[in-house]
TrEMBL record:
Domain Transglutaminase C-terminal: 32-126
UniProt-recorded Gene Ontology molecular function terms: protein-glutamine gamma-glutamyltransferase activity
This protein's name: Transglutaminase C-terminal domain-containing protein
GO cellular component: cytoplasm
Family to which this protein belongs: Belongs to the transglutaminase superfamily. Transglutaminase family.
Length: 129
């Protein structure tokens, strides 16, 4: 709540979007340079997730919760290193797709300091040759 010069009350709202705090890249495990492109059924691919601490305080309990139908079995839980305010961390892990077609890989950055920060990427999975 803010007060203006005449003593009136004014409610100020601000929308904050968290979409810039998580980035996901999928690259072939065999590539020297990450080349975005279709994954293949039965072939491991590397996923790179960049997370940013959106707070002005240190976050020490961050966890990535990863899931995706046809991309991995069950859910992955990956600890994120301790992050200073506005600091970035790169987390890498491998997945082996089991189904072809467009698949959604969802990543949630979870901490008791803030609500879940969610991101996703569509992975085009090619049929094995």
């Amino acid at each position: 709540m803010c007060f203006v010069s005449k003593g009136e009350k004014l409610l100020v709202e601000k929308d904050i979007t968290l979409e810039d705090f998580i980035t996901i890249k999928v690259a072939s495990v065999t590539s020297t340079f990450p080349v975005l492109g279709p994954a293949t059924v039965g072939v491991a691919v590397t996923v790179e997730v960049t997370v940013v601490n959106p707070l002005l305080e240190k976050v020490e309990d961050g966890v990535l919760m990863v899931e995706g139908s046809g991309l991995l079995q069950g859910q992955l839980s990956i600890e994120v290193p301790s992050l200073q305010p506005q600091e970035k961390a790169l987390v890498q892990f491998n997945i082996t797709p089991s189904k072809s077609g467009p698949r959604q890989l969802q990543v949630d950055f979870v901490s008791h300091h803030f609500p879940d920060i969610k991101g996703f990427v569509i992975v085009d999975v090619a049929t094995a040759k």
